[in-house]
Specification:
The protein is α+β, with helices and mostly antiparallel strands. The protein folds into two domains: about 80 residues, no CATH class; about 60 residues, no CATH class. It has six helices and six strands, in the order βββαβααβαβαα. A hairpin with a 2-residue loop joins β2 and β3. α5 packs antiparallel against α6. The longest helix has 18 residues. The two termini are about 25 Å apart.
């Protein structure tokens, strides 16, 4: 752990996610209070440089998330966020990770990843529902999906460094 003095330079966001408390400082109130009182934070400054990552401390997931299926889903997402710090900066309930694997599945292009507004995601779902026909969707729906991602791509901020898909 790196010892750093905490600053109050921004708004802190707290998410209550379950039964107990689990952070990068440890599991439970005692571990967290001890670390905070000692002004100690858990930081990895080298693993994903130039980004600073707060690695997940070892946690007994059985006490935090009783259902095993939910544990597996959470572990995978945490690994993805740890490798892609910009995902941790998404605005809750406003932005989502949108993945375009159409080109990859057809051998034409690499997968594309977007942090997109939720309304864009709903617009894509609406396009698919409106234009889908038959088992494979039909030509029209694939054209609409292609146009949707072309428009999204034109508006996107591209990140190339530190991306691990």
């Amino acid at each position: 752990m790196t010892e750093t003095t905490a600053s109050n330079s921004g708004r802190a966001e707290v998410w209550i996610t379950g039964i107990g408390l689990a952070t990068s400082l440890g599991e439970g109130l005692d571990a967290n209070w001890d670390a905070l009182n000692q002004r100690r934070i858990n930081v990895d400054e080298k693993g994903f440089a130039p980004y600073v990552v707060h690695p997940w401390a070892p946690v007994n997931l059985d006490s935090q998330i009783p259902r095993k299926g939910d544990q597996r889903q959470m572990e995978a997402w945490q690994r993805i966020v740890q490798c892609n710090p910009s995902l941790g900066e998404m605005e809750r309930d406003v932005e989502a990770l949108l993945v375009n694997r159409v080109g990859q599945s057809r051998g034409m292009a690499a997968a594309e990843y977007y942090i997109a507004p939720i309304d864009a995601c709903y617009r894509l779902v609406g396009l698919i529902r409106m234009h889908w026909s038959g088992l494979s969707g039909g030509t029209e729906v694939w054209q609409e999906i292609g146009d949707f991602f072309a428009q999204l791509r034109a508006q996107a901020r591209v990140e190339t460094e530190g991306i691990h898909a």
